[in-house]
């Protein structure tokens, strides 16, 4: 019910704030980008985060997790959004861990979850096949034979796909693209025969890959969850991911806004700080309102996830849509209000805009979620 | 059972025994009881309920007993509110005296003023109105010009007020007047006087949405005894600030209340645009409707969060300006959307060719435009957010 | 080609500007409203306008018209929009006259057109049946029998329907509501047996009526244009009306804007004119841009009508949609910038907002015309 | 046949005979000829065309012959433009010297300065760049600090310029400098100097969209002969205003040119969203796309109308600010819409996993954000409209 943070969550938030600020500031992302770093993230730092329990935030103690829930994870994500930190939080912690926890066999859970918690295992969800998020459109084909399954097809925009030790691949085992029935998930080794992974260099300098599956063979025990009925669990985990990503976007928006307000106070033109111009003040106040509204939707949605409420799908669409609208406004205004300096690569504010558009497209943009919300509400 | 639990049990019993059943239903606006010298009770049960609550002094449960209040502690007041909410009891008495003047008198009034004015307010015997804005003093309220000249044993008041809600039905007015013309904020005082004093004239204002309870009120050589000054001479601006804060909150609520009479936009859209396959049958309007609906939900959640923060003592400030701004702008957008959905059926001003809901949509659409003006314009709210919350320079 | 006015058009515009300003200011509309005037317009003044040729602007000299074309009529309408003048310009001059000219028989033309020119005859087009403009949805049934036709059904939002001497009634003679084929038009006397006319009191204090047809019998020669094939001519004339109405809305927008700018200059708060506040300046400048854009679309569309160009339908939708978007913005801002005084009935600025919403709904709102424009452009 | 008709006929024949066929095709940006000490001709025909036009002095047809111009009358220049347009002849020489410095020198230059600088500009022998903005002087250009100290027989220039387009490829710079620190606008002068002068350093600026032709340029004890001052000492602001007006118009064009490389939004939408029944297969996005498309058309019509008004002498002013504002904002919106349509395919920065069009969309989307900043921000344009057109008070 509460939209506030409890003491434990506040402490976690404060700690992650310091951690990302010190260890993974935007300059770290810039260094990975300019150094053409092959992995695109810092595995040592990821192990440090894991040591602090962040990789196991959602997992029960049975598997070594700390079971802080989504509201806890939301704080970590929000703070990671402030510094645009490149980590496997989304791919591994937000998407893969709950999927395995939800539908994995005991053996799969034992194999995978403790390794996620320790930071040793990175997983990626191979879902998208088209440029716009539509999970049911999966066409990648998994054909059963006596020895298991053979996978053929392609995936795009696989977050951390090029560095993942294992992939969770959403496949079609029956029906046609567009059907929600007929989807199945498989665990595929990152180095499997017939699998080609090509890293994509995206505008946000974060990590994604395109994958092609050319007769990739998997054993029967690679099946994750029931045959043909993956959609329900997938959507549930996607809703968690939408909300978690909205939390990350909220952090980015708050930080871009904070930097812009600071700039308005120090940048002088015509002998006065530009923040004294009323037109800019009013636009800043509008952004403030949008940020406050977004924050409320994110907190409510995180709370609903932890309470396993039935309105999670609605709230996921609400939070993600608001976050998308907010971040587009805030990042555009941030660059405009920074003026010429905002257009330079040297100034960091542009990184927020670049990350924003990638985050907007991830797990459905504002339009997708407005349509979905209306449908869920029955209009 | 501790004292509070006993109080709750007793209160519950009393309410169940004393609140007429018809007073536990949603109240049409015309059944509101405002008290005053000529009180009106559209519904006979209203009078029974009013009289019983007055007898308990529960019209003002937390005021001190010596001034006609119920003398309840904060905790007891909350319990009374909760129990009334549980039974859906109507508010027995609407009163600017209770909501606005009372707190001012309790804080600034002399013992004599409290003794004279508070009990009649508590009993609903006098109906009060406020006199703040003037034709030349809207957003810049402190530039008000209504003059109160010191004439030795009385003040002589001359000037004009506008937006004096229900002034045509009020018995007394509490009023901001200028007592020093050489300075701005520090030359304002807070006066009380009887609306039947010679020289007071008032008339309702016709709005673009039709008749209204707003009035223009004129003062010509109105004689006000000196003991009707509240607070210090020239100290009225502090009182004004306290009152405005309150008004702002009220108007955000009014905005929501105005909207509340109309079904949600998406239901109007379905009715007028059709909904084959369950989807509003105009995809572009549907997108606008869902965006609006989502913003409503986000706004409601923000109000809820602010209330929780306020209770926890972690509120960050600026909330009331944000709510006033966003709530009223959102309400205006809501009615523009509804007008688009309803088409020519929403264009009726009066007459039998439109049904009541449609006529109300049109009037309420027009009335909604005032929400972002009254009680501090949207521009003022944005200024406040920029200054107080974002600390942007002047 | 030219988007400018020639000398003749400029003179006409200047003259009508003075005429409406002197004879039909907003106070005239207020007087009609408050006096509960039964006709809702001033027939004497209409005769004066007719004497100056305005009723025959679109008609050739054969019928007594002055043949100034749509660009000329556009100027009259724009100026009438400045004072929100209640006249039969739209019903009679913009809709009915060109319809009769286009598809009328010689006898119909001879009977009707000179009488329109002289200001003696007022016509109304009875088209709409639903609260949103969709011409093809006509259901009002016209049944042929040996003696002519029998009309049954209802019409709504018939502009000047309660004062029209004759009505042009759009009926369905075959097909089903939604079909563009199967529409026929009839001339019906305002006092015909079986016809009930109820004036509607609209928010703009202008004139419209609801009509019911209960076995209204018309002679065979009441048929206006071909049987079943009215849609083409109707749409063409509607496009002219959309453009003409956009010109009227442009005039209203320009006037509401002008009054608002003047108010911003004289209204003082905090010791300075409120027009010195930058946030209001920027919003005023935005309105200026929207007005300029609307003006260009109106002039291009009027020109295209006179040149009988094939892109008239596109331009009609462009001009009407822009006019709708512009007037909604301008009238809302006008009231807000006038503050409390703008909310009072005493101040005239509110009349612009009231008229605006009626004009927006007339002949299709912005949404209707955006959809139509996209369809015409092939997307 | 009158003289102008004869000129037209002669010009047409000359162009047909002398303009290579490949020079009548749309020009890729990399084939632009900029001249200078190290001229580049990506296409050999460009050199032929350039040399022939230079020989005619038609790079600057209306400049006086004595300064290397074509000496054509206004009417003849227009005819030349029309005939080049008819054949779609490419611009033979791109040059800030022609478009920006030339008009300034013709108006403010001494006879010696004209004789020295104009002919090499006409012949494309020297490439010029501009030095206006500074890190601390953006919208408030007149607050520039780059100092030119009077050292008796020369000026000593110290300071920094930004957004010096193509400075890294330019031979000379025309530059606004401060020659009086005790006053603002009246302390600015206009200097010319060679970019190879010791103490001049320049480096391109990396933008959020990638590398750019914009530079930062640093001056450390740069010695500039006194005869390279144009106009009066401390009279540079008048020149600056003339140049800015020009730049504003250019940038609105650049904005359109940037957009011009990408197909119309609705085609992109159809390609990426599909178009069953001919309609873009996302009705909400379709509505946004058509609204944008209609505004584009309305904007084009407004440019056309302004041109006609300008020709007829009835222009109402404020047009250039409106075009700069609306055009650049419209271009930004266009790319936001395109990004929505293209989805994750529009998120590629580089590499083979995206096609060239998609990579260009992403870069151009980012670059479009600068349109509303460079050449006077949108905020400045709105200020200008409010002040000059609407005459709202300061």
Concise description?
Chain A is α+β, with helices and mostly antiparallel strands. In chain A, 51% of the residues lie in helices and 16% in strands. Chain B folds into three domains: 3-94, no CATH class; 128-238, Butyryl-CoA Dehydrogenase, subunit A, domain 2 (Beta Barrel); 253-389, Up-down Bundle (Butyryl-CoA Dehydrogenase, subunit A, domain 3), CATH 1.20.140.10.
Helix-strand topology string of chain B: HHHHHEEEEEEEEHHHHEHH
Please describe the biggest sheet of chain A, giving its number of strands, its sense, and whether it closes into a barrel: 4 strands, mixed
The value of Rg of chain A in angstroms is 21 Å
Specify the oligomeric state.
Answer: heterotetramer
Strand content of chain A: 15-25%
Mean pLDDT of chain B: 93
Low-confidence stretches of chain B: none
CATH superfamily of the largest domain in chain A: Butyryl-CoA Dehydrogenase, subunit A, domain 3
Mean pLDDT of chain A: 97
Keywords:
heterotetramer; A: 379 residues; alpha+beta; Butyryl-Coa Dehydrogenase, subunit A, domain 1; Butyryl-CoA Dehydrogenase, subunit A, domain 2; Butyryl-CoA Dehydrogenase, subunit A, domain 3; 3 domains; 4-stranded mixed beta sheet; 4-stranded antiparallel beta sheet; 11 helices; 51% helix; globular; B: 394 residues; 9 strands
Explain the overall architecture.
The complex is a heterotetramer, with two copies of chain A (379 residues) and two copies of chain B (394 residues). In chain A, a hairpin with a 4-residue loop joins β6 and β7 (207-218). Chain A is globular and about 80 Å long. Chain A has helices spanning 7-23, 26-34, 43-51, 69-82, 89-103, 106-117, 231-266, 278-306, 312-338, 349-361, 366-376, and strands at residues 123-126, 141-145, 148-159, 166-172, 183-189, 195-202, 207-218, 223-224, 268-269, 272-273. In chain A, α5 runs antiparallel to α6 (106-117). By secondary structure, chain A is of the alpha+beta class. Chain A starts with 6 loop residues before the first helix and ends with a helix. Chain A folds into three domains: 7-88 and 107-120, Orthogonal Bundle (Butyryl-Coa Dehydrogenase, subunit A, domain 1); 125-229, Butyryl-CoA Dehydrogenase, subunit A, domain 2, CATH 2.40.110; 232-376, Butyryl-CoA Dehydrogenase, subunit A, domain 3. Chain B has 394 residues and is α+β, with helices and mostly antiparallel strands. Chain B folds into three domains: 3-94, no CATH class; 128-238, Beta Barrel (Butyryl-CoA Dehydrogenase, subunit A, domain 2); 253-389, Butyryl-CoA Dehydrogenase, subunit A, domain 3 (Up-down Bundle), CATH 1.20.140. Chain B is built from eleven helices and nine strands. Chain B has helices at 3-18, 44-56, 74-87, 96-108, 111-122, 236-260, 265-273, 283-312, 319-342, 356-368, 378-389, and strands at 128-131, 147-150, 154-162, 172-178, 188-194, 200-204, 215-225, 229-230, 348-350. In chain B, the strands form two sheets. Chain B has a four-stranded mixed beta sheet with strand order 1-4-5-8. The mean pLDDT of chain B is 93. The interface between C and D is large, with 39 and 44 residues.
């Amino acid at each position: 019910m509460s939209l506030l943070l409890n003491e434990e969550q506040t402490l976690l938030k404060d700690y992650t704030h310091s951690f990302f600020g010190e260890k993974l500031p935007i300059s770290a992302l810039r260094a990975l980008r300019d150094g053409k770093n092959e992995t695109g993230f810092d595995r040592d730092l990821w192990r440090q985060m894991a040591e602090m329990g962040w990789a196991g935030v959602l997992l029960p103690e049975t598997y070594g997790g700390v079971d802080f829930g989504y509201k806890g994870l939301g704080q970590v994500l929000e703070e990671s959004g402030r510094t645009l930190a490149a980590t496997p939080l989304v791919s591994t912690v937000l998407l893969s861990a709950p999927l395995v926890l939800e539908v994995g066999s005991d053996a799969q859970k034992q194999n995978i979850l403790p390794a996620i918690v320790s930071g040793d295992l990175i997983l990626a969800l191979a879902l998208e096949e088209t440029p716009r998020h539509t999970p049911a459109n999966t066409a990648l084909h998994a054909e059963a034979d006596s020895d298991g399954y053979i996978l053929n097809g392609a995936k795009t925009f696989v977050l951390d796909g090029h560095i993942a030790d294992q992939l969770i691949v959403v496949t079609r085992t029956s029906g046609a693209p567009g059907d929600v029935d007929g989807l199945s998930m498989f665990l595929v080794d990152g180095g499997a025969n017939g699998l080609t992974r090509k890293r994509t260099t995206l505008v946000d300098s974060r990590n994604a890959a395109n994958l092609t599956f050319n007769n990739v063979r998997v054993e029967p025990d690679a099946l994750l969850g029931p045959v043909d009925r993956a959609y329900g669990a997938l959507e549930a985990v996607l809703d968690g991911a939408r909300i978690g990503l909205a939390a990350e976007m909220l952090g980015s928006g708050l930080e871009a806004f904070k930097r812009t307000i600071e700039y308005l106070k120090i940048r002088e033109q015509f002998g006065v700080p530009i923040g004294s111009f009323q037109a800019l003040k009013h636009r800043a106040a509008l952004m403030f309102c949008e940020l406050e509204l977004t924050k409320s939707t994110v907190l409510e949605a995180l709370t609903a996830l932890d309470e396993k409420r039935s309105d999670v799908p609605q709230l996921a669409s609400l939070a993600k849509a608001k976050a998308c609208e907010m971040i587009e406004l805030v990042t555009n205004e941030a660059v405009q209000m920074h003026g010429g300096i905002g257009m330079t690569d040297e100034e960091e504010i542009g990184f927020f805009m670049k990350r924003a558009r990638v985050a907007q497209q991830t797990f459905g943009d504002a339009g997708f979620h407005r349509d979905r919300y209306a449908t869920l509400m029955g209009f | 059972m501790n004292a509070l639990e006993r109080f709750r049990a007793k209160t519950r019993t009393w309410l169940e025994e004393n609140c007429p059943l018809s007073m536990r239903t949603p109240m049409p606006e015309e059944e509101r009881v405002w008290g005053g010298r000529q009180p009106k009770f559209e519904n006979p049960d209203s009078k029974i309920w009013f009289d019983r609550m007055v007898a308990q002094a529960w019209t003002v449960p937390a005021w001190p007993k010596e001034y006609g209040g119920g003398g309840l502690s904060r905790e007891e007041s909350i319990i009374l509110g909760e129990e009334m909410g549980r039974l859906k009891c109507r508010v027995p008495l609407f009163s600017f005296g209770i909501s606005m003047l009372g707190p001012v008198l309790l804080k600034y009034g002399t013992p004599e003023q409290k003794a004279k004015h508070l009990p009649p307010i508590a009993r609903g015997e006098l109906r009060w109105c406020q006199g703040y804005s003037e034709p030349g003093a809207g957003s810049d309220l402190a530039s008000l010009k209504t003059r109160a000249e010191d004439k030795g044993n009385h003040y002589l008041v001359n000037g004009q007020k506008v937006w004096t809600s229900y002034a045509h039905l009020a018995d007394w007015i509490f009023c901001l007047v200028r007592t020093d013309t050489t300075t701005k904020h520090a030359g304002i005082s807070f006066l009380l006087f009887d609306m039947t004093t010679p020289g007071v004239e008032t008339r309702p204002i016709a709005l673009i949405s039709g008749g209204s309870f707003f009035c223009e009120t004129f003062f010509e050589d109105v004689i006000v005894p000196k003991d009707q000054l509240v607070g210090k001479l020239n100290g009225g601006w502090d009182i004004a600030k306290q009152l405005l804060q309150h008004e702002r909150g009220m108007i955000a609520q009014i905005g929501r209340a105005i909207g509340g009479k109309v079904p949600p936009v998406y239901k109007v859209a379905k009715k007028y645009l059709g909904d084959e396959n369950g989807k509003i049958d105009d995809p572009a309007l549907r997108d606008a409707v869902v965006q609006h609906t989502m913003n409503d939900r986000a706004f409601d959640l923000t109000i809820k969060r602010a209330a929780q923060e306020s209770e926890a003592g972690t509120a960050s400030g600026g909330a009331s300006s944000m709510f006033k701004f966003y709530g009223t702008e959102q309400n205006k957008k809501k009615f523009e959307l509804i007008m688009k959905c309803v088409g020519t059926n929403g264009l009726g001003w009066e007459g039998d060719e439109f049904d009541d809901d449609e006529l109300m949509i049109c009037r309420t659409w027009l009335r909604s435009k005032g929400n972002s003006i009254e009680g501090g314009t949207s521009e003022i709210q944005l200024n406040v957010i920029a200054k107080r919350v974002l600390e942007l320079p002047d």
